[in-house]
Amino acid sequence: MYNYGSQTMPHEGVRLEAEGGRIHEEHWQQAVQWLDEADSLVIAAGAGMGVDSGLPDFRGDEGLWRAYPALREVGLNFVSIASPQSFRDDPELAWGFYGHRLNLYRHTQPHDGFRILRRWADKMEHGAFVYTSNVDGQFQKAGFSEEQIVECHGSLHWLQCMEDCTGRLWKADTWAPSVDARACRLRSALPRCVSCGGLARPNVLMFDDAEWNAERTRRQQQRLEAWLHGVTRPVVVELGAGTAVPAVRWFASLLGAPLIRINLRESRIESGQGVGLPGRALEVLNELDRRRARV
Ligand SMILES: NC(=O)c1ccc[n+]([C@@H]2O[C@H](COP(=O)([O-])OP(=O)(O)OC[C@H]3O[C@@H](n4cnc5c(N)ncnc54)[C@H](O)[C@@H]3O)[C@@H](O)[C@H]2O)c1
Ligand SMILES: [Zn+2]
Predict the structure, then answer these.
(1) Which residue, of 87, 171, 181, 282, is most buried by count of CB atoms within 10 Å of its CB?
(2) Measured from the CB, is residue 104 less than 6 Å from ligand 1?
(3) Taking residues 8-15, what's their average pLDDT?
(4) Mind giving me the DSSP string for 253-271?
């Protein structure tokens, strides 16, 4: 049984850090060895995982405004648009932002790195579990089982009532928002609560958000904990998880398992915790896959 939450480092004494963006040969080798020895794969992913599929991350205000220039014009940053208050103040604008993203996520094909991770997991005794702050549903789209995913900030593919009147969640599948992307405004009718008829919102944890219904995420977390109890040698592959909202990074390092941190700009890792591989998720996964196939 793997002692979930323990701070024991099975790889204590290994001191690996990427320097100056170059990946040392010994870091590649260490990552390959951990992957080869593991009986289970924990995938911890942030917005950077979607970037190679063509999705934006929202790194800093500039990152958000590059993707949504209309928000710059009205002076809203990520914290202000991603809030229940923005739905109260201007629901068409808030749904312009989230509706556009929902359409984008529906039409995006996950990049090949997802397939590589699935193949690795298929060869491990206990397969994989995904822990992601992404609300885009890309892991399900790439064929990961719904039962093996924690979406710690919820999912844009699910809706809830603004007031959470009955605690009900429902799928957004039958709703196709029409959005004026330039103005970041919803053109079609606002989605309504299936119980009370009030305004509906995405089942996504926003900032300053007391009404988020966490029930679906709670059940996912219970499944993850049960799975972790059944594994003995997990390896964590963390991909594109930022430091601004560090939920995924905390999760990845608190597991106390060997950690492979793949990140374009923020791959630094405490010595003894794991190995940082600076680079794009897709190219680093491809290279790891190539090296694993060699032995
Ligand atoms: N796709 C989504 O669902 C999505 C997208 C943007 C933001 N969000 C939400 O916004 C918050 C943002 O937090 P976050 O930490 O996920 O994102 P972030 O934008 O703060 O950070 C992205 C991280 O990915 C790295 N990165 C960028 N491109 C990369 C690539 N090609 N390969 C590997 N790494 C790359 C960056 O260095 C950075 O560390 C979360 O709460 C999340 O729920 C979700
Ligand atoms: Zn309601």
Answers:
(1) 87
(2) no
(3) 35
(4) HHT-S-EEEEESS-----T
pLDDT at 1: 47
| Cβ-contact 40, 234 below 8 angstroms | yes
Give me the residue label for tokens 């597991």.
255
pLDDT of 12 > 50? The answer is: no
CATH architecture assigned to 25-52+112-153+215-294 = 3-Layer(aba) Sandwich (3.40)
Q: Ligand 1 in contact with 278 (CB < 6 A)?
A: no
The domain locations on the chain are: 25-52+112-153+215-294, 60-108+158-204
Query: CB of 55 closer than 6 A to ligand 1?
Result: yes
For residues 244 and 68, what is the distance between their CA atoms, to the nearest angstrom?
Answer: 19
What's the average model confidence in pLDDT over 185-190?
A: 98
Per-residue pLDDT, 21: 56
Top CATH class, 60-108+158-204: alpha beta
What pLDDT is recorded for position 104?
96
Q: Do domains 25-52+112-153+215-294 and 60-108+158-204 have the same CATH topology?
A: no
Provide the 10 A C-beta neighbour count for residue 72: 15
- The DSSP output letter for 146 is G
Cα 278 to ligand 1 centre (Å): 15
Q: What is d(CA 13, CA 106) in angstroms, rounded to the nearest whole number?
A: 44
Q: From atom 39 of ligand 1, which residue's Cα is the shortest distance away?
A: 242
Q: Which of 49, 52, 58 to mutate to test the pocket of ligand 1 (most atoms within 8 A of CB)?
A: 58
| Substitution candidate for ligand 1 out of 43, 49, 53, 57 with most atoms within 8 A of CB | 57
202 in ligand 1 pocket by Cβ < 6 Å?
no
Tell me the whole-structure pTM to 2 decimals.
Answer: 0.93
Q: Tell whether ligand 1 has an atom less than 6 A from the beta carbon of residue 18.
A: no
pLDDT of 140 strictly over 50 = yes
* Ligand 1 contact via 48 beta carbon (within 6 Å): yes
